[in-house]
Design brief:
The complex is a heterodimer of chains A (about 180) and B (about 475). In chain A, about 80% of the residues lie in helices and about 0% in strands. Chain A is an all-alpha fold and about 180 residues long. Chain A has a single domain, classed as Rna Polymerase Sigma Factor, Chain: A (Orthogonal Bundle), CATH 1.10.1740. In chain A, α2 packs antiparallel against α3, α2 packs across α7 and α3 packs across α4. Chain B has about 475 residues and is α+β, with helices and mostly antiparallel strands. Chain B folds into three domains: about 180 residues, no CATH class; about 140 residues, Immunoglobulin-like; about 80 residues, no CATH class. Chain B has 18 helices and 13 strands. In chain B, strands 3-2-1-4-5 form a five-stranded mixed sheet, with helices on both faces. In chain B, strands 6-7-11-10 form a four-stranded antiparallel sheet. A four-stranded antiparallel sheet of chain B has the order 9-8-12-13. The radius of gyration of chain B is 29 Å and the shape is globular. Classes of the chains: A mainly alpha (about 180), B alpha+beta (about 475). At the A-B interface, α2, α3, α6, α7 and α9 of A face α1, β7 and β10 of B.
Chain lengths: ~180, ~475
């Protein structure tokens, strides 16, 4: 059953369908959120909120063949809401806030090379580049799927991916 | 560097580390999601919802119904009505800014001068009903006559607005080709920036605010977005500049052109090689963009492939180097080390036996492209010949050759196994292949490539010549039996 059909079933309260959708998309949604918030703790909390929102709002999904794009929109909104809350509380700029927290990745990863590569990606890449790189390399989405779900031309996705990987290669070789 | 042993990581290794890191980090929050939380209820069925989309759908349906009735009773009204609808808008910005509204038949419905200089350029020209290529040539020709390309840093921005990306892409290729031809004929050197866009309210507002064309507003917004040193404050300054001044500013300040860097094209007028390729292509583009694409895939391709390679060593100092090639789901993703630009790209794909396959270049950028190819068999190596690309740093049209493998997927191998069982061709090698195939595609590719190729070929042969195969299978079994009976 595809994600579109699962969402239809979820809208009528089918919990098994929800679990199946979760299993299908958890890594993709986590990668997407992590690429925005750049912090595993926040990413985890927002992931939970995102799936809860998917459960409660499934009936408002209008079938357009892009359930993942709809889930990305929910996740993105929750991420930005989190930024606004933080900014409001701390009264500091968004960039300062996210930049400061990107370093927390290392603590949770035992493999230092994994930690270093992920941290570099979160630190040196721009938001769109992070989204594309993590969705392709970590979540296994095809370039054309990324293009469709992020509403970008395929050529943009390809060139940004290529540019980002080159940046990472260069950065890691200089470390 | 920890754990990487101070080795330089390549892209694949970086990808693997990222995957491993995210796999480790991805939490399981499923149990923490409270599914007892009540779901939102849409108050009335979706199809009664009074959103603009539904009203629009209803309007479209109603319009379609009306048109059907009219078509039944009134002959060709529908045909003519459709031809009066604007499907694409072509923007030409030098300093004169002109927009050509075009119908689905690529005929000009209206030519609008967006500034005073454009009024002079258009003059008495009546472009209504004229083929878009002819109209563009006339406008660019008039600009040349009026002295807009007399400087050394000439620039023109071509913007194609269409809801359909593929149609916009075809139109863009055709128009840019025509403009370059016109400039070449007039011995003008100019940078041609071309872009295809969709209508956005934000950009429309910018265009209105600064009194510039939609295309120029889009271009400048992208330029500002791509360069941190630029802000929306610079919009006022940039919008007042001509494209020539903007091009000089970009070159002088080394601004990042982002996606536009991929689209920037400069007319090439040098080697006999590129001339041959361009003449062929542009002859084709005079009829319609669809024809251009098909022609590129057949005749032009072969021309470019042979002549370009022959002269490559002598004429061109800059060569295009392939970074890597990746096959995935009917598409070949090709990345270059060298920055490239494109003009009427062509491609052909062959297998080891020289049989060719339907292929076309889909998405091009400064660093790569996607080749869509169909009919390939798993477990085989293929060669592609790509033409119509130029090194950004200078040089003529280049043709490059590369190779890729299509991995054998488990499903295909299972088919082979099934067939073997049915046809009783129980050769020991094929059993080994099938066992290996139960793993991932990658494993099967690396370990059992030779066997897979044999198996893949046999699958195809069986589909085509079942009867012959049955006989052959019986003979094979007899031979094997005879071999087994020997001491």
């Amino acid at each position: 059953m595809n994600d579109e059909e699962l969402l239809k079933r979820i809208s009528s309260g089918n919990q098994d369908a929800f679990r199946e959708l979760y299993q299908n998309t958890d890594r993709t949604i986590y990668s997407f959120i992590l690429s925005i918030v750049r912090n595993p703790q926040d990413a985890e909390e927002i992931m939970q909120e995102t799936f809860l929102k998917v459960w409660t709002s499934a009936s408002s999904y209008q079938s357009q063949g892009k359930p993942l794009a709809w889930m990305f929109t929910i996740a993105r909104n929750l991420c930005y809401m989190r930024f606004r809350e933080r900014k409001h509380q701390a009264d500091i700029a968004l960039d300062e806030l996210t930049g400061e927290e990107a370093g927390a990745v290392c603590l949770q990863l035992e493999n230092l090379a994994d930690a270093m590569v992920l941290q570099s990606a979160l630190e040196i890449l721009k938001e769109e580049e992070r989204q594309i790189v993590l969705l392709h390399a970590a979540a296994g989405l095809k370039h054309r799927e990324i293009a469709a779900n992020l509403r970008m031309p395929l050529s943009t996705v390809l060139s940004k991916y290529n540019r980002a990987m080159k940046k990472l290669e260069k950065h890691l070789s200089e470390e | 560097m920890p754990d990487t042993g101070n080795k330089k990581l390549n892209k694949d290794q970086i990808g693997q580390h990222l995957k491993s890191a995210v796999d480790t980090l991805t939490p399981n929050v499923l149990d923490r999601i409270d599914l007892s939380v009540p779901q939102d209820v849409v108050p009335y069925p979706y199809y009664y919802k009074s959103s603009w989309i539904h009203r629009k759908r209803f309007a479209v349906l109603a319009a379609a119904a009306c048109l059907c009735i009219l078509a039944m009773g009134g002959g060709s009204f529908h045909y003519h009505a459709m031809n009066r609808i604007i499907e694409s808008v072509i923007g030409l910005d030098v300093n004169p800014s002109i927009e050509l509204s075009v119908n689905r038949k690529f005929k000009v419905l209206a030519a609008e001068a967006l500034n005073d200089e454009a009024v002079v350029v258009l003059g008495d020209m009546n472009l209504k009903g004229v083929d878009v290529n002819v109209a563009v040539n006339a406008v660019v020709g008039s600009m040349v006559t009026q002295g807009y390309f007399d400087e050394s840093d000439n620039a023109i921005l071509v913007t194609v607005t269409n809801d359909s990306i593929s149609k916009a892409s075809l139109l863009r290729t055709s128009i840019v080709g025509d403009i370059e031809k016109t400039l070449e004929e007039n011995q003008v050197q100019a940078v041609v920036y071309d872009q295809q866009v969709v209508p956005l309210d934000e950009v429309k507002n910018l265009a209105e605010q600064y009194g510039i064309s939609y295309g120029k507003a889009y271009f400048l917004k992208e330029l500002i977005d791509q360069n941190q040193e630029l802000g929306m404050d610079d919009m006022e300054k940039l919008s007042a500049m001509t494209m020539e001044e903007i091009a000089a500013e970009i070159a002088g300040s080394s601004y990042n052109l982002g996606e536009f860097a991929d689209r920037k094209q400069e007319p090439v007028k040098d080697t006999p090689t590129s001339e041959t390729a361009m003449t062929e292509t542009e002859t084709a583009s005079e009829s319609s963009p669809e024809v251009t694409v098909r022609t590129e895939e057949t005749t032009v391709l072969t021309e470019t492939a042979t002549t370009a390679e022959e002269t490559e060593e002598k004429v061109r100092p800059n060569r295009i180097e392939i970074d890597y090639v990746d096959y995935e789901d009917g598409s070949v993703y090709l990345y270059f080390v060298t920055k490239v630009k494109w003009k009427n790209p062509t491609v052909s794909v062959f297998d080891e036996e020289g049989d060719s396959y339907a292929a076309m270049v889909r998405d091009t950028s400064g660093s790569g492209c996607v080749i869509e190819v169909s009919g390939l068999e798993g477990g085989q190596s293929y060669t592609f010949v790509l033409g119509g690309l130029y090194p950004v740093e200078g040089g003529g049209a280049t043709t490059i050759t590369g190779y890729f493998d299509k991995p054998m997927i488990a499903g295909e191998l299972e088919t082979v196994d099934d067939d073997n069982d049915v046809k009783t061709t129980t050769a020991p090698e094929q059993q080994v292949t099938t066992a290996a195939a139960s793993g991932s595609a990658d494993e099967s590719q690396s370990d059992t490539k030779a066997e897979e190729t044999t198996a893949g070929k046999k699958t195809k042969a069986k589909e085509m010549e079942v009867k012959e195969k049955e006989t052959a299978a019986e003979e094979t079994q007899k031979n094997l039996q005879a071999a087994a009976d020997k001491p």
